[in-house]
Amino acid sequence: MSNNISLCSDSDFEKVLALYNRMIYRLAFARTRNVHDAEDILQEVFFRYVNSHTTFNSEEHRKAWLLRVTVNCSKDLVSSYWHRKRSENIPFGKEPHEELTPQERYDTQSTVLQAVGSIPEKYRIVVHLFYFEELSAEQIAAVTDSSVSSVKTRLHRARKMLKNILKEDFYE
Q1: Rounded to 5 degrees, what are φ and ψ at 6?
Q2: Which of 73, 99, 125 is the last residue in one of the domains?
Q3: Inter-helix orientation angle 111-118/102-109, to 10°
Q4: Is 104 within a domain?
Q5: At 44, is the pLDDT very low, low, confident or very high (cuts 50, 70, 90)?
Q6: Dihedral sign (CA 119, 123, 124, 127)
Q7: Per-residue pLDDT tens digits for 138-148
Q8: Same domain, 95 and 119
Q9: Contact 73, 36 (CB under 8 A)
Q10: pLDDT at residue 154 above 90?
Q11: Dihedrals φ, ψ of 139, to 5°?
């Protein structure tokens, strides 16, 4: 008998969805800075999950797989011509003329999230994975297909950028 974990039933899928949907959504939002794109990526990730028939060695393996697919889906969307042209005139985190709920307004307009959203994507993604998903530098390297030293360098540079941005906000 193996300890491998695989998708067996609808109830198993619902458990995985409940366990990881917020993590995937937050990562997709951190990459795209758009509510609707993050929702589309969330759906795509779980579509790929259901259709992959992958056997996972552990729950950690499943989480890493979901994070990697999220990064790939986000990268595909962000690098697409359609997305680049569409997002030139869209403010951080929302569609034009879109009203946000009070919770969304709090989440997307807080000073720290705004600062994180303003740094370049390669730094934003490691900050998100490190601070919001609580992954180690080694885990982030595996998810982003980078070296551990690159992840640590990006984290260091991102912290410096965020410090400068937040310092400017404080003095304004």
Answers
A1: -140, 165
A2: 99
A3: 60
A4: no
A5: very high
A6: negative
A7: 999 988 889 99
A8: no
A9: no
A10: yes
A11: -65, -40
3 and 77 in a single domain? The answer is yes
- Report which of 92, 84, 114 is spatially closest to residue 35, judged by C-alpha positions: 92
Q: Which domain holds residue 42?
A: 1-99
Instruction: Please tell me the pTM assigned to this model.
Output: 0.59
Three-state DSSP string of the chain:
CCCCEECCCHHHHHHHHHHHHHHHHHHHHHHHCEHHHHHHHHHHHHHHHHHHCCEECCHHHHHHHHHHHHHHHHHHHHHCHHHHHHHCCCCCECCCCCCCCHHHHHHHHCHHHHHHHHCCHHHHHHHHHHHHCCCCHHHHHHHHCCCHHHHHHHHHHHHHHHHHHHHHHHHC
By the 8 A CB rule, do 4 and 56 touch? yes
Radius of gyration over alpha carbons of the chain, in Å? 17
Q: At residue 165, what are phi and psi to the nearest 5 degrees? A: -65, -45
